[in-house]
Amino acid sequence: MSEAKFITLEGGEGVGKTTNLQFIEHYLASRKIEFIRTREPGGTPAGEAIRNLLLGLEGLGPEAELLLVFAARAQHVDQVIRPALAAGSWVVSDRFTDASYAYQGGGRGLDPAAIGFLENWVQKGLHPDLTLLLDAPVEIGLARAKRRGGPADRFELEVPVFFTKVRQAYLERAECYPERIKVIDAARPLAEVQADIARHLDALRPS
Ligand code: TMP
């Protein structure tokens, strides 16, 4: 049996994470690969409670936001991700630590060294095997997110320049970790986006 893999999906608002997560699930299920789908912030009872605070609580400062994100992540890593991987199940997470570098580092302007400290402390060497970064110009993503409707959360209420910084930080991460983070141009037709995703997933599996 091949070693279980940890895959994360990242990107700004309106880049098509939900649709492409379904595609990844279908890809794995049709190849009889056992997996769990999870998300951040969230993935555990405590993590989901923290998610509600992060998305809804008014007046949360950047440092408090970062610490809450990592509090949720600590639970998620220990209670869900590590046990699943140890049991041979692949893990597909809708966002992980690259989102902290993008949103809290890029968007909020926090020192990446602080994020790096928490990352090392909480993850103890655990990193995704593959990160798919769905990338699209901010205007396109925000227009798509707006069409989706529904009430906006704390992040979705941010100004466009915030999302420009988030996007830049994600792309810088991808430049630093080209082996792990694959940038996918999500402004293209869905079939092309998904062909790219399938190619990266194919490369993860032993031939
Ligand atoms: P989502 O459902 O769009 O993924 O919503 C989660 C929000 O949480 C999204 O706006 C990004 C934000 N977030 C952070 O700010 N930092 C993090 O580390 C993670 C995982 C998410």
Topology:
Blueprint: E1 6-11, H1 17-30, E2 35-39, H2 45-56, H3 62-86, E3 90-94, H4 97-107, H5 112-123, E4 130-135, H6 138-148, H7 160-176, E5 181-185, H8 190-204
Parallel strand pairs: 1-3, 1-4, 2-3, 4-5
Bound molecules: thymidine-5'-phosphate (TMP).
Thymidine-5'-phosphate is lined by residues 40-41, 69, 94-95, 99-100, 103-104, 155.
Task: List descriptors.
207 residues; binds thymidine-5'-phosphate
Stretches where pLDDT falls below 50 for ≥5 residues?
none
Bound molecules: thymidine-5'-phosphate
Helical proportion? 55-70%
User: In DSSP terms, counting alpha (H) and pi (I) runs of 4 or more, how many helices?
Assistant: 8
**Any idea what the shape is?**
globular
For the biggest sheet, the summary is: 5 strands, parallel
Query: Order of helices and strands, N to C?
Result: EHEHHEHHEHHEH
Mean pLDDT, all residues: 96
Cα-based radius of gyration, to the nearest Å: 16 Å
CATH first level: Alpha Beta
- Can you say what the CATH homologous superfamily is? P-loop containing nucleotide triphosphate hydrolases
CATH architecture label name: 3-Layer(aba) Sandwich
Please report which band the strand proportion falls in: under 5%, 5-15%, 15-25%, 25-35%, 35-45% or over 45%. Answer: 5-15%
Q: What is the domain tally?
A: 1
**Kindly, what is the distance between the CA atoms of the first and last residues, rounded to a whole number of angstroms?**
13 Å
* CATH structural fold name: Rossmann fold
Question: What structural class do the secondary elements suggest?
Answer: alpha/beta
As laid out across the biggest beta sheet, the strand order is: 2-3-1-4-5
